[in-house]
Structure formats: C-alpha cells, structure tokens
C-alpha cells in the first residue's frame, strides 16, 4: 500500500509542475505579446512623427521655393523697369544732343564773333567724345563709360553736354554699385547745373543711392527737394509716388 501512495504523490507532483510550466509559458508569451504591441505602437508613433516632420520640411521647402520665385520675378521686373527707364533717357539724351550740337555749330558762325572766328573747342570733337562714352555705357562697359564721361567733363567743362556727361558719370558709378561716387557725381549736377534738365533726375538718382545705403532721412530730403525745386515735372511726379510708398 505504501508504494502505491508514493506513486500517486509523484504523479500529482508531476501534474503540478506540468501545470506550472504551462502557466509560465503562457505568461511569457503574454508579456512578449504586450511588449511587441507596445514596441510597435512606439515605432508607429515615431514613424508618424517623422512623416509629419518630413511633411513640414517639404511644405517649408515649397514655400521657400515659392518666395524665391517671387523674389526673382520682382528682381527681373525691377531690372526691366530700370532698363526701360535707362533706354528712355538714353534715347532722349541722343535726341537732345542733336539739337544742342546744331546750336553749338551755329554759334561758331555767330555774326557777333565774325564768320572767321575760331571756337574755343571743336563741337564735332566734343560730340564724338560724348558719343564714345555714351556708347560704352549702352554696351554695359560701365568702367570705361565712367572714365570717358569723367574725361569729358574735365576737358569740356563749358560744353552744353557737360551736365549730361556728369549725369551719366553718376549712372556709370551706380551701375558699378559704387553709390558713394555716384552721389558725388550727381551732386555736381544738382549744384553746378541746377537749371539743367538732368538736375531733377540727378536728385532722384541720389535718393536711390541713399536708399541702398540705408539713409531714409536723406532719401526723404532728396525726394522733397525734387518736388520743391522742379514742380510739375515727371521727376516730381516720380518723387511724389516714391514718398507715398514709404
């Protein structure tokens, strides 16, 4: 009888151990499953965050590209407007120069001086020198144009084209992004040739340079000067419009 009890005890103990083993396996599987679910959830959350960040970066990149495109368009329109204005002044300058050259030629045979009197300078040579510098400017050779106009105003200070040459000298310096020299050149136009048709435009050019140099007070003063000294002119209208935008 005793051996039977021992056998039953051993069998019962084995069953308990087997049940405990099964329980341990199920608990382990459950924990593994929970860990996998939590890990996958964390990965999903991180992936979503990365996608959101990538989406934000892409939107910012698209916005930057859009703004860059707008800036490029505005710069192109500004340069085109400047080019049109420059071409207009060049054309107007050429037309006026023809009349001024004709007046200078007539002055050489003025009866008061006598038909045989010799002019102090040769109008034809003046015109050629001026034309050479102007052609350099038209060709975009601003350094050469500045040298040509600078030499012209030194050689022909009393010429009727001297104010024009001084004005284009300032523009040639501005085209080289040298606002300091541009202002100096245009200031000569406004002080030495205040009655010249170029004087009002010289003030506008000065205001433009002052704007680029970060001098809003100077800009305002220059534009107001144009309106005060040259009322009713296109330059005054331009100055008024620029003041309204400030």
List strands and helices in order, with pairings.
Elements: H1 2-107, H2 123-138, H3 142-155, H4 162-175, H5 179-192, H6 198-212, H7 216-229, H8 234-244
Helix pairs in contact: 1-2, 2-3, 3-4, 4-5, 4-6, 5-6, 6-7, 7-8
Give a quick summary of the entry:
With 246 residues, this protein is mainly α. It has eight helices and no strands. The relative contact order is 0.04.
What does this structure look like?
It is a single chain. The chain is mainly alpha-helical. The protein has 2 domains: 1-87; 119-244, Serine Threonine Protein Phosphatase 5, Tetratricopeptide repeat (Alpha Horseshoe). It is built from 8 helices and no strands. It has helices spanning 2-107, 123-138, 142-155, 162-175, 179-192, 198-212, 216-229, 234-244. The chain is rod-shaped. The chain starts with a helix and ends with a helix.
Key phrases:
246 residues; Serine Threonine Protein Phosphatase 5, Tetratricopeptide repeat; 2 domains; 83% helix; mainly alpha; single chain
Secondary structure tally: strands: 0
- Cα(first) to Cα(last) distance is 116 Å
Q: What structural category arises from helix and sheet content?
A: mainly alpha
- Rg is 43 Å
Q: Mind describing the biggest β-sheet?
A: none
Into which percent range does the helicity of residues fall? Answer: over 70%
Question: What is the correct CATH architecture of the largest domain?
Answer: Alpha Horseshoe
Shape: rod-shaped
The CATH class name of the largest domain reads Mainly Alpha
Q: Please name the CATH topology of the largest domain.
A: Serine Threonine Protein Phosphatase 5, Tetratricopeptide repeat
By CATH, the superfamily of the largest domain comes out as Tetratricopeptide repeat domain
Stretches where pLDDT falls below 50 for ≥5 residues? 104-118
Overall number of domains = 2
Which whole number gives the mean pLDDT?
78
By DSSP (H or I, 4+ residues per run), the number of helices equals 8
The fraction of residues in strands falls at under 5%
Q: In sequence order, what are the helices and strands, one letter per element? A: HHHHHHHH
């Amino acid at each position: 009888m005793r051996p039977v009890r021992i056998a039953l005890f051993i069998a019962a103990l084995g069953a308990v151990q087997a049940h405990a083993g099964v329980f341990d396996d199920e608990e382990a599987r459950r924990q593994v499953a929970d860990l996998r679910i939590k890990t996958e959830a964390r990965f999903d959350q991180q992936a979503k965050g990365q996608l959101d960040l990538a989406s934000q970066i892409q939107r910012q990149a698209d916005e930057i590209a859009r703004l860059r495109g707008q800036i490029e368009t505005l710069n192109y329109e500004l340069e085109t407007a400047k080019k049109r204005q420059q071409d207009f002044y060049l054309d107007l300058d050429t037309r006026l120069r023809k009349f001024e050259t004709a007046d200078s030629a007539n002055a050489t045979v003025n009866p008061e001086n006598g038909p045989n009197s010799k002019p102090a300078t040769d109008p034809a040579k003046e015109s050629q020198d001026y034309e050479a510098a102007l052609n350099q400017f038209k060709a975009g050779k601003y350094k050469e144009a500045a040298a040509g106009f600078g030499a012209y105003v030194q050689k022909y200070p009393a010429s009727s084209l001297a104010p024009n040459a001084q004005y284009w000298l300032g523009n040639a310096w501005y085209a080289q992004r040298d606002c300091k020299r541009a202002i100096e050149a245009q200031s000569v136009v406004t002080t030495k040739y205040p009655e010249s048709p170029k004087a009002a435009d010289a003030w506008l050019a000065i205001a433009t340079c002052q704007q680029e140099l970060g001098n809003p007070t100077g800009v305002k003063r220059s534009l107001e000067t144009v309106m005060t000294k040259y009322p009713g002119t296109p330059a005054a209208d331009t100055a008024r419009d620029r003041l309204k935008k400030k």
